[in-house]
Structure formats: C-alpha cells, structure tokens
Design a protein that fits this description.
By secondary structure, the protein is mainly alpha-helical. It is built from 20 helices and 2 strands. The chain has a two-stranded antiparallel sheet with strand order 1-2. The radius of gyration is 21 Å and the shape is globular.
C-alpha cells in the first residue's frame, strides 16, 4: 500500500503541475472575457434560481438542479479542503482559491450552457447531458467528439469514487473519531446504510433530500464561521494582509506563516478551489441537463451561482476563520493535517464549536455523496447503458465504507488525480464550442430574451446511437 501511495502521489504531483494550473485558470480568464464578463449577471442568476420555470422539458426544477449541484460542491472541500490548502500551500492559497471561484463562475456558466444545449433524453423520458454529449454532438469531428466523450464519461464514473465518496466519508470518519472517539469502521457502516437507502430512489429522491439539506446546512455552518470571526475580530484584518502577501511571495520564506512560495499557494489554492466548486470539471452540468428550463442560457445562469455560494462565500469564510486563528497569539501554524487545523480553529467556540463543525461536515459530506452518485452513474450509463445503474449504485455505496477506513493523504491524492483527468476533455469541449457559447449568450441575454423558449427538438439517445 505504501508503494501504491507513493506512485499515486507522484502522478498527482505531475498532473497538478504548472501546465494544468495555467490551463485551468487561463480558461477561467478566457471565458470571463468571451462571455462579456458574465459574472455581472450574477444577480439575475440568483433571482432565476428561486423562480420556478415549468416551460421546458426536464426531470427536476431549476432550484432542485442547483441544490443537487450545490450539495455535490459544498462538502469537505469547503471545510477540510480549505484547511488542507492552508496547511500545504500556506495562507496565500486562500486567495488563489477565492480567485478560482470568482473567475470560475464564467467556466461554470459555459460548461452548463453547452450541457443543456446538447442534452438528450432516453425512451423513458429521462434527460441526460454533460460534456460527453456536448463533445459527441457539438464537435464537427464526430469521431474525435465520441472518443473524448468516452474519456470524460469514464473519468467521471471513476472520479465519483474519489471526490464523491472516498474523501467525504474519510473526512467525516476522521473528524467523528477525533471529537467523539467513534471507530471509523462504525462511521463507515452508518454512512453506507443511509447512502444506500437514498440512492434507491434515484435522482428525484436525491434532489428532494438535497433541497432540504443544502439551505439548512449552509446557514448553520455560516453562522458558526461568523461566530469564530467575531471572536477573532481583531485578527481578521491581519489575516487578510497575510493571505494577500503570501499569495504572491516569489519563493518560500523559512519559518512562520510564510514558509510557502507562490507556486505552492497557487497549486493548492487552485486545486482545492476546483475540488470545492468543480468549475471546469464538468460535473455540475450533468445534473443541470436534467433541469426544467426554457433555454440553455437560463439554466447556465442558475448553475453559475453555485460557484459563487460555494467558493466566493463559504470557502472564503472558512479560510478567514483558519488564518485569523493562525495569526492570533494563541493560534497554531504547526498542523500538516487540514482536518486537524480546521477543527482547532472551530474549537475556539466553547463546547459547541467542534459540534457545529462535525454537524456541518456530516451534512455537507452526505449531500456530496448523494450528488456525485448521480454524476458517476450518468458517466457509467453513457458507456454501458442503463443496465449498469443498479450495479454502479451498489458499488458506490460500498466505497463509502472503504473511503472511511483509508489513509487521508492517499484518498486526497487519488481524488485530485481523477479530478485532473476529468478536466482535460471538459476543457476541450468548452474551448472548441466557444463560438456556440457566445452565440447562445447573445441570443438570450441581448435584448432581454431570457424567457424565450428553445424549441429545438431534444433527440432520443437510443435513436441517436442507431443512426451512427
């Protein structure tokens, strides 16, 4: 196992080298300008996210699709992920994570737009979409599109076992053991049972559970962050200064909070930012494709708000809580474990601090497990057809237990590597279909045509495959 862990660590380090950081962050910047700074429409997106739209075809409401996507993104990345980024990349990683969220809004908008535009439906009437169908149907070179679609679907099906299950159950089991001394195997079994019970119901049950969990868990966790920040109010300003200074330190400075260079801050900030908001991975657009929406742009605007809430708001608050605790005289900067670092920061709140953190992590992680089950299953269905759905759900449920009992670093390395592999075909889809994104944006946003209904027929997947 030790040799395997080293191999995974080397692969992960290469995948998350400067080339991928530049590609991912560069895509965020490119799409920001390509879409005319779509972030300016964030208010409209928030308004649409709570407006019911029954004019289009789909399986769930726009809000249901958003909360399912948020359930998948607001998870351990917002708690343990931020702590891990700070522990490994220094406080400057918080700024890189935040910038990834700000500019990643444009990428989330773009990938969701093409996912809805090129979605298909099954004979049963269920909607299917995502980068795999955008590649297959959108690219002029159909062979290339089909090959890249297969790669994306395979990586999505596998990545779900890492970011969707392994990291989530591992983080919960570790924190519960740390605070309440409950064996990780017991936590794994309990999570596995509850996961299996929900997955039996499919997307509509998952969506309903997430609609109830996401707003509640976000409010409770945010209140906990606010209390921590009030307690450390005098250190919030210095924390912001440390974050900004450390983010652009040209090289590592020995000792203290600045023992990290720009590359370490950017590497872990961008990687953990992606882990948290998933902008560029192509995961959230899979469920966005199932939404009842009048046109692709409308759902894309709703989807992009997920990155705002996830990273620009929640991750930033977690980062400020951790760094303000570190700069305080009684704080600590000696933790290499992100979970331990975040736990210590929340332990400032007497008695209930660790309880709030544990409750937040359990609900965040459980909802992420549910959301990612849908992503992985759709990837597997694209490859093998609907007959794979039940076996995939069973395997997915079993991985909940495996993840809870694995080594923390190994779980994170596997998840990071699989995330990187998902990015590559998805970024190709976004960049090659940039003209479509621009055209659709102008069509529905210029002149305020956001309520217009897209009357383009949605093809049936089985018939589409037969015609090839």
């Amino acid at each position: 196992m030790e040799t395997f862990a080293k191999i995974v660590s080397v692969i992960d380090g290469w995948l998350w080298g400067p080339w991928l950081l530049i590609l991912l962050f560069g895509t965020h910047l490119y799409l920001t300008f390509k879409t005319g700074f779509i972030q300016r429409k964030l208010g409209l997106g928030i308004k649409l996210s709570v407006t019911r739209d029954a004019s289009g075809e789909g399986d769930v409401s726009q809000f249901g699709a958003l909360t399912t996507a948020l359930a998948s993104t607001i998870g351990t990345g917002n708690i343990i992920g931020v702590g891990t980024a700070v522990a490994l990349g220094g406080p400057g990683a918080v700024l890189w994570m935040w910038l990834t969220g700000v500019f990643g809004i444009a990428t989330k908008y773009s990938e969701s737009l093409i996912a809805v535009k090129y979605r298909v439906k099954t004979r049963r009437g269920a909607m299917l979409g995502g980068a795999m169908f955008a590649l297959e149907r959108g690219l002029k070179n159909k062979k290339l599109g089909r090959c890249l679609g297969i790669l994306f679907a395979a990586f999505a099906a596998l990545a779900a076992f890492g970011i969707g299950v392994g990291v989530q159950s591992n983080a919960v089991a570790d924190l519960v053991q740390r605070n309440f001394h409950i064996d990780t195997r017991i936590s794994g079994i309990i999570m596995m049972i509850f996961t299996g019970l929900v997955l039996i119901g499919g997307l509509k049950v998952i969506s309903k559970v997430c609609e109830g969990l996401v707003p509640f868990m976000a409010v409770v966790y945010t209140l906990g962050c606010i209390v921590c920040l009030i307690m450390n109010a005098q250190y919030v300003g210095p924390a912001v200064a440390v974050i900004c200074k450390a983010a652009f330190a040209p090289k590592a400075v020995t000792g203290g909070l600045f023992g990290y260079g720009l590359m370490a801050a950017a590497r872990y900030g961008i990687a953990r930012g992606l882990f948290s908001n998933e902008s560029g991975m192509g995961s959230a657009p899979i469920v966005a494709s199932a939404a009842k929406t009048a046109n692709p742009v409308r759902q894309a605007l709703v989807s992009m708000t997920g990155t705002f809430w996830d990273t620009v708001v929640v991750c930033l608050m977690t980062g400020l809580v951790i760094v303000s605790y570190e700069v305080a005289p009684n704080g600590s900067s000696g933790f290499a474990n992100g979970g331990a670092l975040t736990n210590e920061a929340f332990a400032q709140i007497p008695v209930i601090g660790p309880i709030i953190l544990t409750f937040g992590l359990i609900t965040f992680a459980f909802s992420t497990i549910l959301g990612w089950s849908y992503y992985g299953e759709r990837g597997a269905e694209y490859l093998f057809g609907s007959k794979i759905n039940l076996p995939y759900r069973i395997l997915y449920t079993l991985i909940v237990y495996v993840g809870a009992t694995m080594s923390l670093n190994l779980v994170w390395d596997i998840a990071d590597a699989l995330n990187a592999l998902m990015i590559l075909p998805n970024i190709v889809a976004i960049l090659l279909l940039g003209g479509v994104i621009t055209a659709e944006t102008k069509k529905y946003l210029d002149g305020n045509h956001i309520e217009d209904i897209d009357t383009t027929p949605i093809p049936v997947m089985e018939e589409l495959r037969k015609s090839k």
